[in-house]
Amino acid sequence: MSQRQVLQVFEQYQRARTQFVQTVAELATRPQNIETLQNAGVMALLRPLLLDVVPNIQQTAALALGRLANYNDDLAEAVVKGDILPQLVYSLAEQNRFYKKAAAFVLRAVGKHSPQLAQAIVDCGALDTLVICLEDFDPGVKEAASWALGYIARHNAELSQAVVDAGAIPLLVLCIQEPEIALRRIAASALSDISKHSPELAQTVVDAGAIAHLAQMILNPDAKLKGVPQLAVCLSEEPEDHIKAAAAWSLGQIGRHTPEHARAVAVANVLPVLLSLYMASESSEDLQVKTKKALKNILQKCTYLPALEPLLNDAPPNILKHIVGQFSKVLPHDAKARRLFVTSGGLKKVQEIKAEAGSLLQEYIHTINNCYPEEIVRYYSPGYSEALLERIENYQPVL
Question: What are the domain boundaries of the chain?
Answer without folding.
Answer: 18-226, 228-302, 318-383
